[in-house]
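Fig. S4 source data, part A: sequence.
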Amino acid sequence: MSASVEPFIYKVSPLGYRPSLGAHRGQMAGTGQLFTGRDSLLARPDPRRLDLRASVLDPFGNYRVKVFQQHTQLPVVLIADHSASMKYQGKHSRQQALADFVLSAALSATQIGDSFTFIGCGKKLEQQWLLAANRSVGSATELAQRLVKATFTSQAESLCQLSPVLPSKRSLLFLASDFYMPLVKVSALMAQLTQHIVVPVVFWDESEYQELPDFGIVKLKELESGKTKTLFLRPKYKRRIIEAYARRKLELQNAFRSFGVEPLFMIDSFKAQRLTAYFQMLAG
């Protein structure tokens, strides 16, 4: 694990409703801390919230109680691509970035009382990469340590087989991947998740495109097929690679936006503050 993995703030309102107390603003009136108004004692029979002043001033002599907005829990689920390209080592290790994300997400959820679930997707779903909903940072730490050492050797075909392991309750779902997959597969993945709040986190490394040399022979390995290509780079060809990544970024943005979702591009290492900024941006 990176030495300084930090949590991020992801308060989501009001989409993540679940009728139990938590840190997110819900759609249900209850015993939270945000005052929303007053109602009659008959409508909301909670004498603990009796407002004596409002009751005395009520023209019809009704008892009045204060109404507060109830905060709700929001299950957090991290769905991770375990395809071979996720083991890319450039300026930073993509596996390390994924492991840091797991630990940060678990810290973020558990510190405000939300549960954390992990679903790792390789060729098929394997029990060793499924972490059931819990509030234990220790289990997430152990998982993150295993992720750093894991061998990803295939394509993440199980990304499109998530239905049996997804929570039935509306949850906050993080999709962690480089999304080096056909756009039709991205759409098929998103189609499974429409009842949830989805945050695609795209892991790229600038060494894959921005930091290639202007001139020279470069060997590029296709991680998922194992094939190696030898290229003689020159400025024109390098520009084409950079432009291809720019097009791919736009294609992914359009694909996710068609589902009402905005992707977050996590370039190089994992940075918790970027997720905090992402949720602040969505909140307006």
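Fig. S4 source data, part B ends here. Residues 76-203+263-283 form a domain with the Rossmann fold fold (CATH 3.40.50.410).
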